[in-house]
Amino acid sequence: MSRSAHPAGPRHGDVLPEGRSAANTAPPTDLNALDPKVWSRTVTRAEDGTVTVGGIEVKRLAEEFGTPAYFLDEADFRARCQAWREAFGPDADVFYAGKAFLSRAVVRWLHEEGLNLDVCSGGELTTALDAGMPADRIAFHGNNKTVDEIERAVAAGVGRIVLDSFQEIVRVAHIADRLGKRQRVQIRVTVGVEAHTHEFIATAHEDQKFGLALAGGQAAEAVRRALKLDGLDVIGIHSHIGSQIFDTAGFEVAARRVVSLLAEIRDEHGVELPEIDLGGGLGIAYTSDDDPREPHEIATALREIVTRECAAAKLRTPRISVEPGRAIVGPTAFTLYEVGTIKPLDGLRTYVSVDGGMSDNIRTALYDAEYSVALVSRSSDAEPMLVRVVGKHCESGDIVVRDAFLPADLAPGDLIAVPATGAYCRSMASNYNHALRPPVVAVHEGAGRLIVRRETEEDLLRLDVG
């Protein structure tokens, strides 16, 4: 690869245009180090400086599969599934949130590792069933499920449908009656707890589209109506308070309010609902500053919270469900890019353009998400250079990593990787500028295999009917 020199960009201490100085974004002491909090567990740097994953050098992976591409560490994915299942044990249910990333290979891994699956569209349901996930281990979410989606879910025998509105209560009951079924359902409630997260991904305060509010009695009325319908078997209450959450304080408030609703249901209807789903949203480490909790810590905390609140309300402790998606798949993958151009802006920063961008990772533009980045095709002893990693799309907001440090001798042709891109990046990928969505490659025990192939220009034209 070329090692041609180029003008130096800003160094540690220069001023960023947002008013935040690079001195407040201290460069790492070793740019070659790979923080295990951020990278999947089989990622290492070899003696020659090349990064490997699953025993394969990224340079070999780039030659075989091209860039940009997502590389998913299968061993890490399976280990995280096992950790969540073991943390919660046989008396609780772990539903993988398929919206984070779903493919038939992932469904098979989930099935083999004993996890259940949460879907929220007809396409996700089809993928789950086609890959062999038993229907009774599937939960179906969504704030506006179509009649066709509900019919397919009920006919397949999904284990639960999470009801999200008064209209949906009647809709699901009518379809279940017509199909001669009695559908197990949960009522999704909004508990008025706003997780400390981005406005667009906080989902439990009242002013948003999901669920039925506890405040004002909507949730209680939803339960009242659902219990009267023969086509429905109301098994519990569902609550989800947000995403990228690092502590359980919000869950404690949410659980207290949900248990209070369970007590009201018992007092009014003489029924103790047997399940409570606390949703997902547990955070992962995108940068070394993030400090996520381990599954066993989360399980212990949530179990103690629910048990304590139920004891205070004189209720039997219900079966707990959780829905980790990002927390399982997020850290298992990285996106590999090739550097195309390097543009120093004197006194500001250096722009590093790669062969992907917002079409394969919209989260930075959408949520102002933060990521790490590393040079992975070699090591470097050069001094740190403050960079902004950007894509090749016709948008000034096409940013992959807003502020990071890379070696000052970075050159076109180098391979850089952005870790923790397993969740939402491929799921939210687009064809903006008619870009081709990247492949997903599972890497395991010295071999890489496609689980989602790269799109081709023929794929684009096939959908264009002219």
Your description of this structure?
The protein contains twelve helices and 21 strands. It is of the alpha/beta class. 47% of the residues are buried.
Condensed summary:
This protein has 12 helices and 21 strands. The protein has about 475 residues and is α/β, with parallel strands linked by helices. The model is unreliable at about 1-25 and about 195-205 (pLDDT under 50).
Keywords for this entry:
single chain, alpha/beta, nine-stranded mixed sheet, eight-stranded parallel beta barrel, 12 helices, disordered N terminus
Q: What is the strand and helix layout of this fold?
A:
Layout: E1 44-45, E2 51-53, E3 56-57, H1 58-65, E4 69-73, H2 74-88, E5 92-97, H3 104-112, E6 116-119, H4 122-130, E7 138-140, H5 147-156, E8 160-163, H6 166-178, E9 183-190, E10 212-213, H7 218-227, E11 232-239, H8 249-269, E12 275-277, H9 295-312, E13 319-322, H10 326-329, E14 333-345, E15 349-354, H11 363-367, E16 374-375, E17 384-390, E18 399-407, E19 415-419, E20 440-444, E21 447-452, H12 457-463
Parallel strand pairs: 4-20, 5-6, 5-13, 6-7, 7-8, 8-9, 9-10, 9-11, 11-12, 12-13, 15-17
Antiparallel strand pairs: 1-2, 2-3, 4-14, 14-15, 14-19, 16-19, 17-18, 20-21
Helix pairs in contact: 2-9, 5-6, 7-8, 8-9
